[in-house]
Amino acid sequence: MTRCARRLGATPAPPLLSSARRHAAGLALLCCAWGACFSLQAQTAASMAAVRNFPETAMRGQLRVTYPPVVLMDGRPDRLSVGGLIRDTQGRAVLSATLAEQDLTVNYRRDAFGEIAEVWLLTPEEAALRPGKQRSLLESLFGS
Fold first, then answer.
1. CB–CB of 127/52 below 8 Å?
2. Could you tell me if 125 and 106 lie in one domain?
3. Is residue 144's pLDDT more than 70?
4. What is the rounded distance in angstroms from the CA atom of residue 109 to the CA atom of residue 115?
5. Domain count, the chain
6. Is residue 139 part of a domain?
């Protein structure tokens, strides 16, 4: 305690940081956070630019979820399979009910029973490609 230290003749402990040091530390922390924001932004832009490769058996279609698991594929009634997976444009799993009453361009794959097993929502860039055409690494990098 401070009172005991003064009685014994010891000098009190100095303050943890002077105000100048506190401001410098805060400025350094702010600069680090600012740099991290730009780093994350660059990583996000790079990951969004990548075009996904789909299985050879994937087909192209227009999906409209009416009442899950019932869907319309290219205007005809169809069903999502049990455990069927829908992936958004960033590869995350999506619940079919969140896509209700939306017309979506997708690639999809059927299971052995003819039900829709996997669905990939397409970005405009992916939708512009032909369904069976895979982009090579050079085409992905240089846009040829």
1. no
2. yes
3. no
4. 9
5. 2
6. no
User: Which token pair is 99?
Assistant: 């896509």
CA separation for the pair 17, 27 (Å, rounded) = 14
**Span 82-111, pLDDT tens digits:** 999 999 999 999 999 999 999 999 999 999
* φ/ψ of residue 21, rounded to 5: -70, -35
As a 3-state breakdown, the chain gives helix, strand, coil percent values, each rounded to 5, of 35, 30, 35
Residues 71 and 127 grouped into a single domain: yes
Q: How many CB atoms are closer than 10 A to CB 122?
A: 21
Structural domain contains residue 39: yes
Same domain flag for 40 and 82: no
Q: Which position has the token pair 């512009």?
A: 128
Cβ-contact 88, 46 below 8 angstroms: no
In angstroms, the CA 23 to CA 114 distance is 66
Omega prior to 55 cis, within 30 of 0: no
| Assigned domain for 4 exists | no
Range of the domain at 43: 14-49
